[in-house]
Amino acid sequence: METKMNSVDNLVDNEKTYKQAVDILREGGLVAFPTETVYGLGAIATDERAVQRIFEAKGRPADNPLIVHIGKKSDVKDYVEKIPEVAEQLIEAFWPGPLTLVMEKKPGIIADTVTAGMDTVAIRMPDHPVALQLLKKLELPLAAPSANRSGKPSPTEAEHVYHDLFGRIPLILDGGATGIGVESTVLDVTVTPPVILRPGGIVKEQLEALIGPVHLAAKPEEKTETPRAPGMKYTHYAPEAPLFVIEPDASILEHAVDSIHQQGKRVAIIGPDELQTIKADWYFTTGAIHSHEAMAANLYKAIRQCDTTEADIILAIETDLTGIGAAVMNRLDKASDGKRYSE
Ligand code: AMP
Ligand code: MG
Question: Is 142 strand, coil or helix?
């Protein structure tokens, strides 16, 4: 299959591109598009066969449910049995935006594969002009996971989608680099207090300021019961070389680099501007040390850049858990499979 990448950044021929996208989707095909978090790979969420193609293109395990993207707030009632009061408040405050709400689904509308056979559905309204325009023209909901091969970092540029899904999907809408850079927050509002299944673009502090205490889901392996979100059990975001998390300390870092070199190995480092060291074989910066936002925006690209090197080992410098730092560290925890660097 030929993969087209059409820019929707400028005004040239945008209408034609959207029409092409809508036609492909209506025929049960896949289209990758930018959102404010990461690029999504969309299929019409009510079309079982179309949704199946997402799993094939990504190589995604079938028990990992997808998020349904809608173009207007009022659409949510079409897919959900009952909208809890906290959800009403959250929708008013944070949609369009990087907050996904898990609610009881109305049976028989959204394809079963989207919800991995569960009685809940995860829904959000993305805050990106291209995503919103596409949804508006389509007038149907889109099931859309991140547009990467399963297990790889989510794409924050159209080029990343092309790299992963070339020959597997017909069309990528190129809207430039995404803004937030990590996925949406997934919040389960079927329970009280609500539970964050995945930290993301809307941070715990923002949620709590509006609706009071929310819980953070335990890691599935620490739980005795079945994880609420099956997707939580899979490894994710992993580069080719083993990745270790390390402290933001210049001397610890230099020591680590020396000892890796003594073993005859080469090292790529992902870290802030301020800790950049010429001792590293490769250093991919994620921005200013105190900017969690910059780190979120640049992390996935940096992980992908490591894959273009011959590094034997990757060190990723950690940040604290405030604000979007929680989402960043959640992704690094998965990319490293929990490994920390120690001598
Ligand atoms: P992705 O599509 O790659 O951004 O991942 C979607 C995330 O949403 C995964 O972590 C899923 O487990 C989660 N998710 C989607 N639908 C549901 C649902 N019905 N219940 C719980 N989690 C969900
Ligand atoms: Mg994903």
Answer: strand
